[in-house]
Amino acid sequence: MDSNVSGNGNGGGGYRFRRIPRHFLPHLKLDPLLDENLEQWPHLNELVQCYRSDWVKDDNKYGHYETISPVSFQNQIFEGPDTDIETEMQLASARQIKAEDATDDDVPSSSGRQFTNADITKHFGQSPLPAYEPAFDWGNERSMIFGQRISETATTQYGSGLKISVKVLSLSFQAGLVEPFYGTICIYNRERREKLSEDFYFCELPSEMQDAKVPLEHHGIFYLDAPSASICLLIQLEKPATEEGGVTPSVYSRKEPVHLTERERQKLQVWSRIMPYSESFAWAIVPLFDNSIGAASGGSASPSSPLAPSISGSSSHEGVFEPIAKVTSDGKLGYSSGSSVIVEISNLNKVKESYTEESLQDPKRKVHKPVKGVLKLEIEKHQTVHTELENVSESGSVTNDFLDPADPVADMLFSKSPGNGLDGPQSSNSKWISSDGKDVSGNGSNTQGNPDFCADNFQAFDFRTTMRNEPFLQLFHCLYVYPLTVSLSRKRNLFIRVELRKDDADARRQPLEAMYPRERGSSLQKCAHTQVAVGARVACYHDEIKVSLPAVWTPSHHLLFTFFHVDLQTKLEAPKPVVIGYASLPLSTHAQLRSEISLPIMRELVPHYLQDSGKAINSLKNVDSTALLQFLHPILNMLLHLIGNGGETLQVAAFRAMVNILTRVQQESVDDAERNRSLVNYVDYAFDDFGGRQPPVYPGLSTVWGSLARSKAKGYRVGPVYDDVLAMAWFFLELIVKSMALEQTRLFYHSLPLDEDVPPMQLKEGVFRCIMQLYDCLLTEVHERCKKGLSLAKRLNSSLAFFCYDLLSVIEPRQVFELVSLYLDKFSGVCQSVLHDCKLIFLQIICDHDLFVEMPGRDPSDRNYLSSVLIQEIFLTWDHDDLSQRAKAARILVVLLCKHEFDGRYQKPEDKLYIAQLYFPLIGQILDEMPVFYNLNAAEKREVLIIILQIVRNLDEASVVKAWQQSIARTRLFFKLMEECLVLFEHRKPADGMLIGSSSRNPVGDGPTSPKYSDKLSPAINNYLSEASRQDVRPQGTPDNGYLWQRVNSQLSSPSQPYSLREALAQAQSSRIGASAQALRESLHPILRQKLELWEENLSAAVSLQVLEMSEKFSVMAASHSIATDYGKLDCLSSIIMSFFSRNQPLAFWKAFLPVFNHVFDLHGATLMARDNDRFLKQVAFHLLRLAVFRNDNIRKRAVIGLQILVKSSFYFMQTARLRVMLTITLSELMSDMQVTQMKSDGTLEESGEARRLRKSLEEMSDEVKSSGLLNECGLPENSLLVTPENFEENRWSWSEVKSLSGSLLLALDASLEHALLASVMSMDRYAAAESFYKLAMAFAPVPDLHIMWLLHLCDAHQEMQSWAEAAQCAVAVAGVVMQALVARNDGVWSKDHVTALRKICPMVSSEITSEASAAEVEGYGASKLTVDSAVKYLQLANKLFSQAELYHFCASILELVIPVYKSRRAYGQLAKCHTLLTNIYESILEQESSPIPFTDATYYRVGFYGERFGKLDRKEYVYREPRDVRLGDIMEKLSHIYESRMDGNHTLHIIPDSRQVKAEELQPGVCYLQITAVDPVMEDEDLGSRRERIFSLSTGTVRARVFDRFLFDTPFTKNGKTQGGLEDQWKRRTVLQTEGSFPALVNRLLVIKSESLEFSPVENAIGMIETRTAALRNELEEPRSSEGDQLPRLQSLQRILQGSVAVQVNSGVLSVCTAFLSGEPATRLRSQELQQLIAALLEFMAVCKRAIRVHFRLIGEEDQDFHTQLVNGFQSLTAELSHYIPAILSEL
């Protein structure tokens, strides 16, 4: 078979199985004689075969999944009204790029999965699934399935697995290196005096002896279980044996002279060339992990051992070892690569003769002299990774690392010879280790990294392999022999030769070639030599001799030791060794033992010298568990051999034996995994069904087991073995499958063309029946035991599921479906919770199959059988009571969909469509039984909705339509699900902006399993985050202060917040709350928290976009009427659009939404704009205006276009007036929600950004110029607004109408803004307050309800100020609105004449405002309030207020409007009341008119404002209407009080004391001026040009309706610049003001819109003054009185006027005129006409006075006589004075 890795089970071409060659280090060399004819020993053959055959691994057994690369997520931007994160991020990334100089290719995005497939183009956004399950880890999800099988690596490797390589770099002596040195290195445990590995040999030659072609120095590789302080490298050096009388080894340690002399050098060179034998020279111990060094003992770095953190020195408390590392010359540690350390060993101890292992422990170092030399080693530590065999390079085999820190069976390899063990003078101790096992060693991990690591590195055999409780993995057949001591009777130079001989028949026969050579690469040799022990009576040795053993031993195989003495003197030829004795050791006796053996020494070898040695011991009587495990593979192979093709009895016996063995292995092994690792290794790797040399095992195995099961089912007693079989069922089931699969592969191996799938195998009828029966029995067991709640049942259930799972890859799927359906019949419907759980696990395992998607149906016509079963069962589970199972069922589906979504094989749109169609029936089921969905909790609903979205996302339109075609109700339910998606996945930021009230949902309680970091994301995320925070690992590739999170998150926690989960939980507990989701999030490392937010944002965005995509499809389908929905209202569309608007959506969504919105209105405008959909439209209008406030320009512009789309639709499908009403209503609602103003730093208010942006949006809405650019930016064609909908001929779009609409909205905005800005001064400045209410009333006039509301607010404000007339006007205006609406719809008792009558009272009752009342019928607004009764109510209120203002003539007009109503209703009682009221009113009017003091209803003042602090009032004049008792001083005080509070430090308030014309330019800057002047109202017919002074009462003949809009005041002035002058200089200016509207108005002040003035010269002034007095007197004399008895008031007024005219003391008035104009010089300046007029006026005045005095005399009684006398005197003296100027006066009077 090939060793290729096939793509997937039987998909992807190629074969399932991969060969894994055995890496033997010593390739198995069996006894050459036996190699050919192993057939004679079948068991041996089987054994060898077992260790020789390659492993066969099924690559897809544990699932094969190639995922696409992760999706990258972009930050989704969720804008609030006041945020513009988009721009901030753009700026930040621009800065970022500048700063980094564009080193990074792209902004790091967080993990998830990337799909680069074409179909993203037709979708609006990414699929929601990757964001929901961003850390999807298929392996992890699988591992959580109950009973999940875990793949084992081929070797049994646990533990820390240290691998240490050692390379000798150099050896140097101070004396110089002239002879060759040899050495060994091994791993040694100092405390236990135990040699842990075989020796690694090295050799250092002097440079002149080096060969040019010296091969590369090799590394020695050693294996360790775990580091410990007692483990060291033991290094032993040897050199050529010393020449007697020659140069002794002491030259290397002498103090003086240091260097070898020339003669010494030559002697050594010559001798070393002729001396083949060597003697031990020096030793050293290098502690590998000695960490106990305190002070630095060598140089700058503290030397400690090579593999401890720094480099090793002596352990000072023991004082045994000197520092072994000198720091390299520059004071730094020399590092080569990776973790390798260069160690210089200078504490080489020179050996004394015959030193033993004891000497190594010598604490005082008396014996040993230090050698002056340095050995340089490179030591490197490799952590052996748990490599799957796949990753192992060809060169090295897999490393072996065990969890075995201290092996109890310590083998004492070095030991001192027992004193009492010597039989005689001559004895030899040798120590044996036999290891007839297997050993795997090699360098798995660093092969690529280190160039020195070549294939032929020396792998030191680890002696502990032979004692472990694990199966041997390779045949390792050799013996280590250690000669220790030889005791002789006299001193000799002794060495030993060791040979392996086959028998003792002939001593001359050649020994076997079985000795491993020291030089790597040479072949096995016939004999091996030890060192020479020089001049010793007890010779000690330190050699290790490794012997390869024969495959088959006979009792006569033995080791032969020959002892030689060698003479160490130079004679003529090289020294010859002399034999001095022999010893022999039969292999069969001692090879099993690890012990010290003493042997006698024989003088000579006679034939059959072995006879007297001990008999062979059979030590294999009872297999102990270690051996059972060590030889597990061959044992199992043999038993299977019997089961496969033995007879029936043999089969059963073998089966039972096998079950026993397996059970023992399972129970006695160290690991307690359910699938024992040794067994898993056997099934997965070692078992290869005898390589096809015999019939497959599975038929036999299933028959034997099946019959056992059937007997149990029939009730026979089958003994305890049956339960054991169930516990080990997994093993047999996996064997059966592997056996089938191997057969399948072998069947098609040759016939199959390359790259084609192996077709599934059809099982033979008999075998399949047998398997069915077996399966049935096992199912029954599961069923029965489950009810009893036995754990075995669940495990067996999983094993059966995996059996089906495995079979799906091997045999015809429809045969497997038989088994599956058998299962489902057994566990049908909603069964007990435990059973149901088993069923879910079963489905979970089977559906995880690599080819799940491609499975056929049970009948050829059906779709995928498994998926339909799965959907059925999952839906059933959702209806189950058991909550945990509901959640589990949902999880199963989500994980499956993720698996498909990220599967590299299914990325084409057609694949995705196929998968979506497989799952589509699920949606149908949910729609049919919605209560099942509604019963789920939120987390489960999310899972289900994600599934639904994922399915519909990939469906084609034809399939989607099916969901909408059945019934209107069902379609509606589908969209209910879509709305649920929006609700459940909405992204809520901690502080959501203005309108989406920030959600204060309770923190989610802690789930029992894992803490809940996120509600939205999949439950798996919580585990992912707990793991991540437990490790507290920074995600890869981000520096500590990773710019990843500096850039974005404003909500990152402060550094003081805990990062680790533990701290967070502790904090939460200390505050006595369960850790809330919020607290948990806070506790995350910022990078993790940022990831979490990124995922949630993307999920929310993807869900919204997906729902939008569905809505767009629906809209298009609905247009073609191909689906079932309510076409009258299109409620599915309208409700989903409302859902979109009312949720917090990301920027990406708004960008995609607008074109859809436009399209929907194009297609369905008529329906959506109909009255039925008012509520919908109002909401849409509201949300568009809300978005028009956003700071983010992209969103704001889209809102503007949205409004334009609405307007466009209204041109065609409704009155624009109605849209105006709607927009006005929603604007008013928005205003109440929106922050229109903001505080400035000085505490005053200013317009907020939101208001500014809304204004900008409303302006842009009607901006014809910018329009096409805007449309372009928003992805719509430029002519979108001009396109006419179907069925319309002409284009109705009109920019002017849009402008007027936008204008009226802006008006409303401004009014609301102004009102809000006044908030702080509202209570003080009542005038401004009233005005702002008035503006609001006018701005919202299109909506009668709002109009009335604001008018009533205004009415209340006036009543508070006791401005009764203004309040009454408001009431009249309200009544007017109602009356007009009623008249317009001919409803009620009034006609247009009545409205005209009302308009006379209140001119504001205009016609245009209310023409739209009908359009204003919008849900919640409109006609209900506009009734006759409400009109009457407000008329009566007006009547009450006018009478409080004493404006009775208005009351009369109002009551006359009320009377027709009562007449039409025949409400005679009410009519009587009305007429009584009228009577009272007319009497009051009479009373006012007959009063001697003229009645004034108010006083009027002109107020001018000058100064920038007045804002809009600057340079404007107003006329104020004040109550009649307010004097000039009062209003001055009132106004200065109001406006002083508005001044800041830089401005002061001045009042201009006179009423002259103010030139604003000439005023001081920084000062604000108020000019306040009393003014008089002007009657309608008054002659303003008259020079007379005005006396109000004179001009009013009767009291008319007191409606004034003109006012005047007179100002005296001089033309010569003096402020005051005589009468002759005194001019007069009369100013007439025209106001905007007339008093009484809705407000207390009106703007002056026109001001005219006349000037009167001094003389005209004088004439006017005199004429005025004359007129007053004449008026008094001529006024008709109602009855003669009314004398008293007449007398009083006459006295008052006369006193002011002729009393002596006031003569000055008339006289001063004379002196001013008629005396001397001024008289000459007058024109004669003026002179005549003046004289005439004076004469007339005097004549009227005379008349009046007479009348006075008639009226007075006694008490007034004196007064009359005074008057007469005064008159006479005045006449006398005047005669000086006008002589004619005397004759006139």
UniProtKB/TrEMBL annotation:
GO terms for biological process: small GTPase-mediated signal transduction. Residues 476-643 form the C2 DOCK-type domain. Transmembrane segments: none annotated. It comes from the Eukaryota. InterPro entries: ARM-type_fold, C2_DOCK-type_domain, C2_domain_sf, DOCK, DOCK_C_lobe_A, DOCK_C_lobe_C, DOCKER_dom, DOCKER_Lobe_A. Keywords: Guanine-nucleotide releasing factor, Phosphoprotein. Residues 108-117 have a biased composition (Polar residues). Belongs to the DOCK family. PANTHER family: DEDICATOR OF CYTOKINESIS DOCK, LD20667P. This is Guanine nucleotide exchange factor SPIKE 1 isoform X4. It comes from Theobroma cacao. The gene is LOC18610590.
